[in-house]
Each structure stands twice: as structure tokens, then as C-alpha cells.
Give the backbone structure.
Amino acid sequence: MLIGFDWKAVWHELAQVMDRLDVIIAAHAGREGPLLPILHDVQAAFGHVSEDSMRAIAAALNLSRAEVYGVVSFYHDFHAEPGHSPALRLCRAEACQARGVEALVAELPAAARVKVGTVYCLGLCSVGPAAIVGGTVHARLDAARLVELVDAA
Ligand code: FES
């Protein structure tokens, strides 16, 4: 036994995570095609979709873990490991490209570029370049505003 290791706290934290996961899964019970909404909620709640979460989701939906993992690994919005979600996602689809998004990216300092993820269309095509930060969308970005958003993210 490890001396000083707080097993009780770890167990309590794990139980809270699993309770939260149960609530997310239950919220989509009976829905047609519940996997993607569940994965979105789990990603939003925990910042990633862990192995344990994938097992629990697979069991709840009567899927194999490989099926759930296949979906998680297919979509860029889902991450199996923590710490991979970029703080800001910049739209780099056609309309935002036509409105100069690549020039904005080129103006970003290298340190800021690593904090910027990519998304393909946020539905703000006519007012691009657009980005999303923490669930809030931002449009009509110029270089200065993009730097501000990246610094604040
Ligand atoms: S192409 Fe960027 S918001 Fe649609």
C-alpha cells in the first residue's frame, strides 16, 4: 500500500466522473442516433472522451468499444486524450478562405499558431473569417482581433 496516497479522494473523484457520465448518457436515452450527441456532451464536460467513457458509452448503447473508438478517432472534434483541444478553432473552409483567413493565420506569431485549431464552417460564411472559442462564435475577424482572442483563450 502506498503511504500518503489518498485512495478515498481518487475513488470519490472517479465516482463523480462516472455519475456525470451516467447523467449524460441518460439524457440521450431513447433518442435516435444517440452516440454523437453523447460524445459531444462528454467532450464538453471532460475535455476528452477517455477509455473508461468509451467503455461506458459502448455498454450503454450496446456497441463495441471499437465502434465508439472509431467514431471518436474519425471526428476532429473528439479527443481520446486530455489536453488536445485547441482553445480556439478557426474556420478554414472555402468562404472564410475567400475572406482572407489564411492571411490572418500567416500574421499570427508562431507561439499563437499552436493554440489555433481548425474547423470547417461555423455557418457564418458571409461574415467570415470566423472562429469559435469556448462555445462562442466570433465573426469578421481581422488580425488584431484574432490575436486578442488567441491571447485570451
Ligand atoms: S466557411 Fe467559414 S463560417 Fe462558413
